[in-house]
Each structure stands twice: as C-alpha cells, then as structure tokens.
Amino acid sequence: MSETTSTKPGATAATLTPEQAEQARRAYLLKRFWVSARGYWGRDGDKIAWVCSITLLALIGVNVAFQYGINVWNRGLFDAIEQRNADQVYSLGLLFPPLVLGSVALVSSQVYLRMLMQRRWRSWLTKSLISRWLTNGRYYQLNLIGGDHQNPEARISEDMRIATESPVDFTSGVISAFVSASTFIVVLWTIGGALTIPIAGNYVTIPGFLVIAAVVYAIITSSSIAVIGRNFVKVSENKNQVEAEFRYTLTRVRENGESIALLGGEEEERNDLDRTFANVRQQWRLLAWQYMRTSLVSHGSMLIAPVVPVLLCAPKFLDGSMSLGQVMQAASAFTIVQGAFGWLVDNYPRLADWNACARRVASLMVSLDGLEQAEQNETVGRIKHGETEGDTMLSLNEVSVSLGDGTAVVKETQVEIGPGERVLVAGESGSGKSTLVRAIAGLWPWGEGSVNFRKGQELFMLPQKPYIPSGTLRRAVAYPKPADTWSAEEIHVALDKVGLGHLRDRIEDEAPWDHTLSGGEKQRLAFARLLLNDPDIIVLDEATSALDEKTQDKIMEMMIDELPNATILSVAHRVELEQFHSRKITLERREGGARLVSDVDLAPYTRGRNVLSRLLVRPIIKP
C-alpha cells in the first residue's frame, strides 16, 4: 500500500538522481493539491465562487484607478505649491478627502471579499478532505500503511488554512501588481520622457529612463531575494513538520496523563519533549536566518526606492524641464511600480510557507488516493462483505487477513454463527484475534475471502478502549447517535443496569468525561450504549478487560438477560468468560499466519454453574 502512494511522482525514479526525484515528488504534490483545490470553482464547488472572484478583480481595477487619481492629484498639488497658487491648493485640498475615502472603502471591500473567498474555499476543501478521510474507516487505515501522512489533524487544520489563504492573497496581489505596474509605467514614460547625459564628450539619450530604472531596480532586488531565499521552501517545510510533531507529542502526554502520572514518567516525557522541541528551535533558527537575509533586501529596497526617482529627476528639475509636481508624481509612480515589481521580495517568505503547507495537505490526499484505489482495484487483495444464506447470522468464508504489504496475519478462517449464538474467540496474544475482529467490522480491508451478515441485521462493536466524546455525559452514552435519540429516563435506566446509577443526575453536565471516568466506568458506559441500541449482532473486543471478575460477571449476565436473542462474538483472554458463551474457537499463531485450530461447544448458559463442568469439546479442527 505504501508503494501505491509513492510511485506517482517518481514513475521514472530509476533514471533520476535523488535530487531530481525529490523535485519531481514536490512538483507532483503541488499538482495534486490543485487538482482538488480548483474544484471550488467547478460544477460541484461553491455557488458564489465565480461571483466573488470576478467582483474582487473589478475592485482591484477600480482601486488602481483611484491610485492614479491620487497620483494626478499629487502632481497638481505640488505644482500649485511651486506656483504659490493658494486657490488651487485649497481646491485640491477639498478634493483629497473624497479620494481617500473612496480608496479606503475600496481597499476595505477588497479585504472583506478576499477573506470571504478564503473562508469559503477553506471550508469547501476541508469538508471535502474530511469526508474522504472519514469514509470507510480510512482515518484508521492510515495508521496501518506507510506514507507521508503523519499528524493528519495538523494538515487538515493549520496547513489547510495556509494552503487556501495564501493563494487568494497571492493572486489578488499579482493582479494588483500587474495592473498597477502597467498603469504607472505609462505615467513614468510620459512624465520622465528621455534623459540626455554627457559621456566622454558625447551626449547619450535614454528614452523612458524612469521606466528602465524601475525595471533594472526590480531585477536587482528580485534576483537578490531569489538567490538569498533559495532554501526558504525547504526550511519552511521542515519547520512545519517539526511543529506538527511537537504538537502531537504534547497531545499524547495530555491524552495519556493518567498512565504517565501513575508510572512517574514525567522526567522521561520531559526529556522526550525537550528533544522534540530542540528540533523546533533548530528549524526556527534556520528560518530566522532566512528571514534575516531576505529582510536585508526588502528593508533596503523600501528605504532606497523613494529616493532613486527623485535623484534621477533632479537634473531635469534643475534645468527647468520638469516641474516640482512632475517630480513628485514621478516619485510616487516609481514607488508604486517598484512596489509592484517587488511583490516577490515582500511575499517570498509567505510563498515558501504556502508551498510547504500545500505539499503537506497533498501528501495526505495522495495517501487517501492510494486507499481509494485499493478499494476499487480488484487485483489488490481485499476482504469482501456480503449477505449470508439461510438462517446464518454471520459467516467467515475462507477469510485471510493480511497487512498492507501482503504479510499474512490470519489464514483461511471458515466460521458460521447462527442466530443467538455466543462465540468466544480465544488464542495467545499476537495470534490475530483483534485483527480478525476489525476485519469483520470492516475496519481492516486487506486480505481474502468474505465476511457475510444476514440482511438487515445491525452490528454493534465494543472495543477495549471505548471512545468518550467531548460534551455532556448524555452525549457520551448516546454516542454514536445524537444525544437526544433517547429520553433522559431511558438513559437513567441504562446507567442503572450497568452500575453507573450514581451518574444519572449528571447526564446534562459538560465535563472532561474521558479523563473523569475510570477505565472500568468507560467500559460499563459502553455496555449502556449497547442496551440503548439493542443490536442484532454484538462484537466484543476485550470489552470487559478493565472490570474485576465480579463486575464482569454481572455485566455479562445483564447483557444476556437484556439481549437474549443477540448474536455475540467475543475476543477475550479470561477463561471466566467461557461460561457466558455457547462456542469457543481458538486461533493459533503459525508460520504464514494464524489459523483456526479448534471449534468447541460450551454448555448452555445458566446462573451459578461450575465453569470446568461446561466444556464439551467437539474437535472440528482445521490443523
């Protein structure tokens, strides 16, 4: 499976150097990002995407027109000052506020529309990616395959934000720069005209000297930033990766706080966090060095740009061929043109950061692509799911479970379970019991054979570590259905039956229940969910491992009494659980994958019987 996600950008990897292969991979990831991102403007995208885009372009054009108006006003004002024309100065002064208010209103509208597009584009693409991530248990399967998709939560949140915000800023910035440069180059050419300078006794005339100066100046600054910041993309990408790893390590400490505290592992965790954060500091040091170098160019350009046109125009002003107003208009136009040409200088760090974030999002997309292709590719071994025949509730037909790389975990399992049967799956640790259960639930897709259920039957699975969502206790009990699915009284009854009656008055309380409840209480809460859902088929994966033997017996007896017709498949190590089951199948780890080695009948469940007297071994063995 890992090969599926990595061969796309390097189909000719055998003929490429490592550097070329890496460049090809990066180029492919950016292309993959845009394949999904451009769908925002497609048939299934946002309905107002094109309206926002066109309106934003129109606002940019009108704003440049206002800039030109202010530029012309600037010339008139300084000409009036030079001529000491008080009436002209005052009349132009009255014209200035409307120009400023109009420009401010346009810029504010442009900012609002730009951020609206960013927000809606991020929302559309995030929902699309989350939908793919949650479909068919892919969020779980990503943990089982190789590929560059670690910390998907950071990629979907922070990286996605930057990946969708920056392109809108860049696009509007580039268009604004292009329109501004085109407009004010004409101004520079018209005002500046030609400059004649003496060289070695001859006179050389330079047409459009201000335009040439602006272009040369921009080439120098842009080339400088490109050379100085050539490693910016790589450094920014590494910074984002180590930041995500540091957040993940902190999250792990928070989620496993109880175990760490009980084991006294604070010092080891501190050392691990120090090592992880040392990587963060190192990458930020490299990034700071990159910022410092690019700041030398950008800040120097900002200081020099306003002075250059004044110095260039000074000879013509001094010989009387240019007025003060023309000099100031030329200086203003030169600054605007230089700002447009210097767009790369000002935005190169952000462009590098976007590049890194877009590739991280695309890496997750590529891994999801691989899972989707495997789901549709018949040549890749996948466990099929279908319907049983006759009265059989659940059947495993020659089911083999393998890892994503093809390594067998369980081989050729053949089991049929009838209505109301309670089957215990036993075997030593590592024999593939839990993996087989995940394959039955559809979470583990790789392998062969088929898992079949009777049509219309509801399956409910209880894992060893129940998930407790945030919010109220009522929501935790009702999960995965909405909190208002059952009445408060129904939830009270379920809590009473599983021994959590002391919490019945707190079902509307919002608290960190995942940390408040003990491991045993979480497992009992999971059984309360089971009672509320009343499923046809129940799969228990070490679902009572955190309970003491007495509580375990009470919970199992309660489940059988309350759901007497349910078909149960259990994975457990405790021999005490045999008394609550009618069959026991045993998996044994062997070379080439675990196999079903025995299937025995157990005596019918009755209260208060001796466990050892219940074994009726019926060896229908598959050696």
UniProtKB/TrEMBL annotation:
Which Gene Ontology MF annotations are present? Answer: ABC-type transporter activity; ATP binding; ATP hydrolysis activity
Q: Which residues cross the membrane?
A: 48-70, 90-113, 170-191, 203-229, 296-318
Q: Which SMART domains match?
A: AAA (SM00382)
Q: Which GO terms describe its cellular component?
A: plasma membrane
How the protein sits in the membrane?
Multi-pass membrane protein
Looking up Pfam families in the UniProt record yields: ABC_membrane_2, ABC_tran
Q: Which domain of life is it from?
A: Bacteria
Which SUPFAM superfamilies does the record cross-reference, listed alphabetically?
ABC transporter transmembrane region, P-loop containing nucleoside triphosphate hydrolases
Locate the ABC transporter domain: which residues? 394-616
Q: Where is the ABC transmembrane type-1 domain?
A: 54-353
> Any idea where this protein resides?
Cell membrane
| Alphabetized UniProt keyword annotations | ATP-binding, Membrane, Nucleotide-binding, Transmembrane, Transmembrane helix, Transport
- Identify the Gene3D superfamilies for this entry: ABC transporter type 1, transmembrane domain, P-loop containing nucleotide triphosphate hydrolases
Instruction: Please give the family membership noted in the entry.
Output: Belongs to the ABC transporter superfamily.
This chain belongs to the protein called Putative ATP-binding cassette transporter
- Provenance organism: Rhizobium soli
